[in-house]
Each structure stands twice: as structure tokens, then as C-alpha cells.
Amino acid sequence: MTEKKEMNVVKGLDLERYMGRWYEIASFPSRFQPKNGADTRATYTLNPDGTVHVLNETWDGGKRGFIQGSAYKADPKSDEAKLKVKFFVPPFLPIIPVTGDYWVLYVDPEYQHAVVGQPSRSYLWILSRTAHVEEETYKQLVEKAVEEGYDVSKLHKTPQSDTPPESNTAPDDTKGVWWLKSIFGK
């Protein structure tokens, strides 16, 4: 059995520059996201206490599914971009805390593109400040994931509209149907 190399994680991440909206360009399918989700994105806002407010949104069948949570440095003394994210589920009755790793494996110098993963390599996200990226840029970001030991054959491109929807223009899935479906792989 071959041992996987340790992942390289961004050091000295400028958290303020990292804040804002990121569009999901591609990801590994996850039971926490609807199979047919489109226009998926995350919006990060720095809180006064140094934690990060997380808003993840996706659209499925014209309805907006979303979940809110928080992120914080896994080790406050480290300069590595290893964060923990915490969400409460189910979204319609948030009572069960779920915590996961959020490791920034790459961010370009302009903070326009990022590759995010976690130590087991079960999850991977390619993010961009814009809803679409040039194919050459996409290939370079995928290559960053390969360098960190990811099997990118599982990568799924996320459909993004030319004009991404605004949060207040679509009805919310207030019953959490998207979340329940995702648990059962639908």
C-alpha cells in the first residue's frame, strides 16, 4: 500500500482578501449538496471575533437551497490555511452540529481562484470569483489538485449560469427538501 504524501496547504492566507463570493467551478459529488444543483457558490464574511460566516447556496429546480455556518482556524497559532467549518443540520431545524475540514490548498496571488480540500481527500472544490473560468485556468487548477494526491476522475463541473441568480430572486427551499434528497443521494 502506498502512503499518500502530506498535503501542501497555503501559508499566510490573507483572510480579509479571501472573504467575499466564490463560485463553485467543480467539486467532488457530496451527500451534502443536491445532485442537480447549479449556480453553487459560497459567500464568506469576516466576523469581528475573527471567525468567518459561511453562506453556501445552490439552485435546484428554480429553488434556492442554502445553509449557513461558521469557519475558524483549526490551530490559531499556525500560519497554515487549515480551517474548520461548522454547520447545523438539517437546515430547516438546525440542531445537529457537523464539523469538517476546509484546507486552502492553493490560491492565486490575486485571490481570484482557489483549490480547497481536506486531509482524507474525499472532498475537493475548485473555486473562482467569477462563475466561469478559461479552460486553461481550469486545467491548471485541476493540476494543483493532482499534485496534492487527488483522484480528479471524480471531479464534476458545476453548471453555472451566464447571469448567476441573486439570493432574493428565487423562492427558498424552506423545507430543506434538497438537503433530505442529498442525504439519500438524489
**Structural class by sheet pairing and helices:** mainly beta
Name the helicity range: 10-25%
Radius of gyration: 16 Å
The residue-averaged pLDDT reads 88
| Secondary-structure element order, N to C | HEEEEEEEEHEH
Number of helices: 3
DSSP strand tally: 9
Low-confidence stretches: 177-186
Strand order of the largest sheet: 1-2-3-4-5-6-7-8
What's the main sheet like?
8 strands, antiparallel, barrel
Shape: globular
N-to-C CA distance: 34 Å
Strand content: 35-45%
Task: Outline the structure in words.
Helices cover 13% and strands 37% of the residues. The chain is mainly beta and 186 residues long. It has an 8-stranded antiparallel beta barrel with strand order 1-2-3-4-5-6-7-8. The chain is globular and about 40 Å long. Residues 177-186 have low confidence and may be disordered.
